[in-house]
Every structure is written in C-alpha cells, then in structure tokens.
Design brief:
Blueprint: E1 2-3, E2 10-16, E3 19-24, E4 27-32, E5 52-56, E6 62-66, E7 73-77, E8 80-84, H1 99-111, E9 117-121, H2 127-134, E10 138-143, H3 146-158, E11 166-170, H4 173-183, E12 189-192, E13 197-199, E14 205-207, H5 208-220, E15 229-234, H6 241-256, E16 259-268, E17 275-285
Parallel strand pairs: 1-16, 4-5, 9-10, 9-12, 10-11, 12-15
Antiparallel strand pairs: 2-3, 3-4, 5-6, 7-8, 13-14, 15-17, 16-17
Helix pairs in contact: 1-2, 5-6
Amino acid sequence: MWTAGNWKDYEVLDTSSGEKLERWGDYLLVRPDPQVIWNTPKKNAGWQKRNGHYHRSSKGGGEWEFFNLPNEWEIRYGELTFRLKPFSFKHTGLFPEQAVNWDWFSGLIRHAKRPVKVLNLFAYTGGATLAAAKAGAQVTHVDASKGMVTWAKENAVSSGLGDAPIRWLVDDCVKFVEREIRRGNTYDAIIMDPPSYGRGPKGEIWKMEENIFPFLELTAQILSENALFFLINSYTTGLQPAVLSYLIHTAIVRRFGGHVTADEIGLPVRDSGLILPCGASGRWQG
C-alpha cells in the first residue's frame, strides 16, 4: 500500500465503529468512513474533545455538528497551504491520502530537466495542481464546479502560487478533452480523480463504471509523444488496483509502452499503528 506518511498538520488518530478521529491542524474532526468496520474501544481523549462531528443519516447524507470550530482554517503540506472548511457530505476540501501521489509525480517533474505540461482533470480544490506547479510544471486545471475552481485558486494564493503558470477552467472534463483532440493540443502528464457519479455544468451524467474506460482511451490521445506520467485515482467500490492497472495497460501501454504500477493508498493511524485504506491509484510512467 502507498501510504501518505509525511504529514505534520494532519493525522488519523483513531478509528472505530464506522468513524475516524482526525487532527486537521489545531482541530479534531470525527467523520464516517465505510472502511472502518471494526468496533474497538475509543480510548483516545480526542473523541470527546472533537471540534466537529459529521453524523451520517440512515436516510442518506447527514449533517455536521460543531464544537468551537472556525468557518475556515489552514493546514500545510511542505510548501503548500490549503484552506479548509467543512461542507457537504463530510468533506473538508482536501483528501490527505493523495499526498503520496503528489510526492511521486513531483519527483518526476523535478527530475525531468525539461518543461512539463500537466493536465489535471476532475481537479477539485487543486491539491495535485499545486503540487505539480510547485515542482515546476505548467498546469491546466479542469473541474465542472465553479465553486471548486474558485477554492483551488484561493489555495494557490495561500501557497504562494498565485502567479504560477496555472490555467483555471470550469468545464466538463470529457468535452474539454474532446476539444483538445480537435485542437491538436497535447500534455506531458495527465492526472485524473474522477468521481463515482457526477454531473457536468450542463447536466452531463458521469458514471465511473460506464464511462472511465472510453474516457481513458480518449484522454490517451492527448498524451505527448514524450509523455512523462499518467495518474488515475479511484474511490469507487469494485475498481481495485488490478482493475486500474488493466485499464492503463489497455488504454496507454499499448500505444506508449512504459511501466504501470497500481496499489491501494492509505493513511497511518497513530493509535493502532495500522494503515487505513483510502481508495486506489494507478500510475503509468513513460
């Protein structure tokens, strides 16, 4: 498992009964996690000193309960700064487990010794965008949500990357890639974090299991001939690392060659010493 173990401002303190206790900077949050199917004693004092608790509803969704939590605060990862705020369906605006991927591709960009054009699709609040830009890449950031793109821009400013070569686009990712093919534009690296289910700006429906393979084949058409890497993340049940590996082999390796690795990604749990699985990633390196 690839583990995001280099955080200082974030950690999973404990897990039990479908929930995880996390430290986000100076604040403690309790959030549901479907992977936590064990029921162990909650000995950590943080369970009782939490600043925010997201309660799942039996009818779907849920709601936050707050205990002296600010509307917004910041945490850092290396030279990057992220603005956090609790919002819909338990999220805070950051997936800390992705730091293990940021470290991987940042090293590739720095050691490329050439200009690197990166395309970040389904780019959310910009964690991967900022990591790539900090490593020296020129980045195109695409997300269908105007609010998420605005949030990503704020993170860029907080990280000292307000003037970095980042192109911010509110667009449907599939339609954007189709236009890039027609325009003949290519990228040296592509990052994508597609949702299990989503809608584009004009109501376009995305279902991971149905759409991901044709989209990978489409996206492969805009990889440059000297492509550096490709990264896909999945939080969809059933799309295990082996499936991601097969998809990449079929859509990319047949044309470009290169090397594929895939694994679960996870976060260390301080109290147990174990690793909490948090999805899967597939990586291709040219």
